[in-house]
Amino acid sequence: MIESTEQALGPTWNLQRCMADLILDAGSAESFGGDPRAFGAGRGLQKADQEALEKFKSQLLVYRDLARTALEDPLPDCFPITHALLEQADLWEGCLDAFLASRTIQSPYYRDVNPSFVAWLANSIWGQERWPFLLELAHFEYIEVEILRWPDEAPAMDLKAAPAGDSQVVFDGATRNLAYHFRVHEATKQDPEPASGETFLLGYRDSEGDFIYSELSAHASAFLARCLEGAAVGKAASGLGLELDDVLDLLIGLREKGALLGFR
Amino acid sequence: MNPFTGVGVGLRRPHLEKVAALDSTPVPFWEIAPENVVGQGGSRHRQVMKILERDPVITHGLSMSIGGFDAWDRDALANLKGFLKETRSPWHSEHLCWTSFGGATTHELLPMPFTRDAVRHTVERAKRVQAELPVPFLFENVSYYACLGAPEMSEKQFLEEVLEGADCGWLLDINNVYVNSRNHGFDPREWLEGMPLDRVQQMHIAGHAWFEAEQLIIDTHGAPVIDPVIELMQWVLPRIGRPVPVLLERDNEIPELDVLLAERASLQKAYDAALAPVLSGNHD
Questions:
Q1: Which long-range contacts link B76-84 to residues 24+ away (Cβ below 8 Å)?
Q2: Judged by CB atoms within 8 Å, which residues 92-151 of B form the interface with A?
Q3: Residue A40 to residues A53, A82, B99, B169: CA-CA distances in angstroms?
Q4: How far apart are CA A76 and CA A83, in angstroms?
């Protein structure tokens, strides 16, 4: 929970607002660079402060570059394929500019830059007229990082290794049941545009803590979704018209891979 | 024996596996950013926690934006307090700067205006932080590349007034002093003279880089520490007069662990040499 922002208007507040606008807003490099005094005057700065903006113009613009550099580590690390796609189109910097200008990076945690980027793509639909798969591609790339870093849970006690019709499935908290309209898992840095096609994936950590995904059928994905909601195995299967033996085999296989902790 | 002396190293992700596997380490302490650890899980997190449980650690924050105006995320503050207790960090440090405005975080250390209004504002915020934290709080002097607004005082006076007003400790970043002295044209030794060195609880040392286009030295933490910065550390340590811990920071172009540990060992020799007269009582 974030408390509401204080509105302590004053000279320090005005200067920081001016600097934040310079760093974050699209087009500020041009408007500030063209006339720093007017930039400051438009933000309520006193004449002496406007003159300081003029004096330190080039050095203040360095901060705009540094804020972008600060994103150059986490974003390409987390979104290598999305980054490759946008770099190929010479749009990566434009994407960063638009992302920063949205001011959606609000968490004090550096790691939250990544989910903020996905949330921004979802809300802004930036680039998705040209690349309708962009949000799903970025989401799948982020999910890998989220699963890898998901907080560990205390080991569940008294779990059964084999499921029965009345069993409830106990998933690892990091496991994600994913559905996409594009074959996002097949995209690569060399070929970053995934083909269209309904895709169902289960992402999870294996026993070594590495990210793994398994491709599922639509029915299996729907079945696991019901299990994740807490439905008993038999009821979840019958509701979808699935054979109990088939889903039991599916669950045993997923448990062996580490996607499930066991059965209760 | 007090582990918080000598030259420690900032714990970074590429080295976690090797550091966690070490049977013994010459590093007296590690420094870590709580923001990069709390609320995490997975195999890398387990490596971090193994190191933190085994070795002494000092915490260093990145994003409290103490010079800013945004209210603190109460959950993040609660997490920080818990982490400080868990790691038994002797203190917690943050930068004398601001990083967020209007709810938007830049993840960049932005310069404070050197004004009386900014002193008053920062002192008030620092006092509130100190009241919340379970350990003493230190401010770190930052590299600044521009004055934000018309300065009413020097950076030196601003820092001194904030430290005195907030009555908090000082994390003296000796590289930042050097970088600022080069970018703004002053003598770093003159700058340090007259500063409240009795408030120094810890030091940072790091590398930097010259950017031709900007005509600036940027505090990149992406290169080995240069000799003039080491000499400045050696100059100030006897004047502090205590074996305060020095932390080697490396955040970019991170070398292999053995290379970083070799740099640490070299700095440790310089540290020991500088403090030898003080510790033997032969310092003037």
A1: B76/A107, B76/A108, B76/A109, B76/B35, B77/B132, B79/B34, B79/B38, B79/B39, B80/B34, B80/B38, B80/B133, B81/B132, B81/B133, B81/B134, B82/B38, B83/B34, B83/B37, B83/B38, B83/B59, B84/B34, B84/B59, B84/B133, B84/B134, B84/B135
A2: 98, 100-108, 110, 112-113, 115, 117-118, 121, 145-151
A3: 7, 36, 20, 35
A4: 6
Q: What is the pLDDT of residue B283?
A: 64
Q: What is the rounded CA–CA span in Å between residue A138 and residue A194? A: 12
Whole-number Å distance between alpha carbons of A89 and B56: 48
Do residue A151 and residue B70 have CB atoms under 8 angstroms apart? no
Flag whether residue B209 sits within 8 Å of chain A, measured between CB atoms: no
Closest C-alpha to B230, from B268, B187, B276: B268
How confident is the model at residue A198, as a pLDDT? 97
Q: B107 vs A71: CB contact, 8 Å cut-off? A: yes
Strand partners, B140: B95, B171
The answer to whether residue A39 scores a pLDDT higher than 90 is yes
Catalogue the E-assigned strands of B37-143. Answer: 57-60, 92-95, 98-101, 104-110, 137-140
Contact A159, A262 (CB under 8 A): yes
Contacts of A11 in chain B (CB under 8 A): 113, 115, 117, 149
Nearest neighbour of A56 by CB, restricted to B64, B69, B147 = B147
Three-state secondary structure call for residue A160: strand
Class of residue A24 by CB neighbours under 10 A (exposed 0-12, middle 13-18, buried 19+): buried
> B173: part of which helix (H) or strand (E)?
strand B169-173
Q: Which residue from A8, A19, A174 is facing B69, i.e. has the nearest CB?
A: A8
Provide the 8-state DSSP code for B69.
-
Distance CA(B75)–CA(B113), nearest Å, equals: 29
Is B108 within 8 Å of A67 when comparing Cβ atoms?
A: yes
pLDDT at A1: 33
d(CA A53, CA A19): 10
pTM of the predicted model, to two decimals?
0.93
pLDDT tens-digit series, residues A157-198? 889 999 999 999 999 999 999 999 999 999 999 999 999 999
Whether residues B76 and A108 touch (CB distance < 8 A) is answered with yes
| Pick from A187, A75, A68: nearest CA to A121 | A75
Quote the percentage of chain A above a pLDDT of 70: 97
CB–CB of A127/A97 below 8 Å?
A: no
Q: What is the pLDDT of residues A131-160, one digit of tens each?
A: 999 999 999 999 999 999 999 888 778 899
Domain residue spans in chain B? 7-279
Among A63, A107, A205, beta carbon nearest to B110: A63
Architecture of domain B7-279: Alpha-Beta Barrel (3.20)
- pLDDT tens-digit readout, B158-208: 999 999 999 999 999 999 999 999 999 999 999 999 899 999 999 999 999
